[in-house]
Write a structure and sequence with these properties.
InterPro entries: Calcineurin-like_PHP, Metallo-depent_PP-like, Metallophosphoesterase_sf. It holds the Pfam family Metallophos. The chain is an alpha/beta fold. Helix content is 27%, strand content 24%. The chain has 7 helices and 11 strands. Strand 2, helix 2 (52-63) and strand 3 form a beta-alpha-beta unit.
Length: 237
Amino acid sequence: MLHIVSVSDVHSPRYLPLFFASITTLRLVNQKADLIILAGDMVEKNSIDNMKPIISVLNKLVNKNPRRIPIVAVFGNEEYIGFEHRYREMYPEVLWLDDEYTIIEIKDAEICIVGSRGVLERPTTWQKKNIPCIENLYSNRLRKIKELLNICREYRLSILVTHYASTSVTLQGEPPQIHYFLGYKIIEYIDSDLRPDISIHGHVHNSTKTYAMINTTKIFNVSLPAIKHITVIDVNI
């Protein structure tokens, strides 16, 4: 059994108390963790230093384990484009994925993880004004995600991690008129043979349906404001 601990949208320092309480709960129940996945917007408005308390607390969970637990993360919209190198320099203990993939071996199983900010069906007004050629960026990103998922087909377990929602199903609870600006139906639209075993996303703070299954893909919205606790995903491998 593989135990994945995942969270997004801490918006540090805004939801740090809830994050700390959730970690404490996991430690009290001796929750096992084999892999930690952070799905973006861990800090508020690119306040890079505010990642420090998150890493400090996660290290307490990591250090309980005799084997170093991998921490994999993607960037959200609050970790601004162009600053990725700063996060990597300041927090090298985290494997940051930016339209990239990695292979991690856990319990004799090779796990392929694709990480990306994700795609929006429609760019926000702010993005249109401030990010040049944003439509092309999303189109190219979707193509890249498909290419990486194709690579992952060769491995025991495939996981897609995005900040933006990867399905419309987990948008329930948000006003329908803003669904376009919260994600893209990646899981619905891609070829069935490319679909990952697990899709993890954040961004949807008001979701009332945080878990969905499309064909064989299990989808988890791990947004802390939506769930009020850290998500634990148990996978048979």
